[in-house]
Design goal:
single chain; about 190 residues; alpha/beta; about 40% helix
C-alpha cells in the first residue's frame, strides 16, 4: 500500500515529516505558570518512535480542581525533580522539528512561563495546533474538537489528562489528518519564547 502511495502523483502523496514532537503539559493550579508533568511523543519519518512523560515539582501550591483533573497531588509532585533538572531532556526533544500540541498556545505559554521563572532560554519554534487543524479540516464532521472527542472518533486510545497519553493522542491525530488531507504546512506558525 505504501509503495502505491509513493508512486502516486505528487499531489496525492502523503508528505514526509522528518521529525515532529507532540507535547502536552499538566499544571498544578489555575495560574498556568508551571507544569507538574509534561508528555512528549516523537514522530520520525511519519511514524511514532517514542513517547515519554516527566513528572515535575512545580514548586507551587496545587488547586483541588487541577488535582481532580490530572490526579497528581502536591505530595507526589514534591518528590519529583524541579523544572531546571528536567529541562535538558525536554529541550533535547523539542530542539528540532515541528512542535505539535492540542490547543498549542496554552502548552507553549506554560513552557514559556516556566523558562522565564527559572531564567532559562529557548529558541523560537515552528508549531502546529491540532485543534486548529481539526476545526479547519473536519468542521462539523465531529461534535467538537476536544482531544478526547477526536481520539474517540479516530479510534485512538487515550487516558485523558495524563500528559504522556495526551501527547500520544495529539501525535496520532496529526498523523491521521496528514494521511487523510496531505500537507498541513499551511497550519504551521512560529512561537517566540522571548
Amino acid at each position: 500500500m505504501n509503495e502505491l502511495k509513493e508512486m502516486a502523483p505528487e499531489h496525492l502523496r502523503i508528505p514526509k515529516i522528518d521529525r515532529a514532537v507532540a507535547f502536552d503539559v499538566e499544571t498544578p493550579n489555575g495560574k498556568s505558570e508551571r507544569m507538574c508533568s509534561i508528555g512528549m511523543t516523537v514522530i520520525e519519518n511519519n511514524k511514532i518512535t517514542r513517547s515519554v512523560e516527566y513528572r515535575i515539582n512545580p514548586e507551587q501550591d496545587f488547586d483541588w480542581y487541577c488535582v481532580k483533573v490530572h490526579g497528581i497531588t502536591q505530595e507526589e509532585a514534591e518528590l519529583e525533580p524541579i523544572f531546571p533538572e528536567v529541562w535538558p531532556y525536554i529541550r533535547e526533544e523539542l530542539d528540532t522539528g515541528l512542535v505539535l500540541a492540542h490547543n498549542a498556545r496554552f502548552d507553549l505559554n506554560v513552557l514559556r512561563k516556566c523558562l522565564y521563572a527559572y531564567g532559562l532560554e529557548f529558541h523560537d519554534v515552528r508549531f502546529a495546533d491540532t485543534v486548529e487543524i481539526a476545526r479547519s479540516l473536519l468542521g462539523k464532521k465531529v461534535p467538537n474538537h476536544k482531544l478526547g472527542t477526536l481520539c474517540e472518533w479516530m479510534g485512538i486510545p487515550l487516558d485523558a489528562h495524563h500528559a504522556g497519553s495526551d501527547s500520544f493522542g495529539c501525535a496520532e491525530i496529526y498523523l491521521n489528518l496528514l494521511e487523510e488531507y496531505g500537507s498541513l504546512a499551511k497550519f504551521e506558525k512560529t512561537f517566540c519564547f522571548k
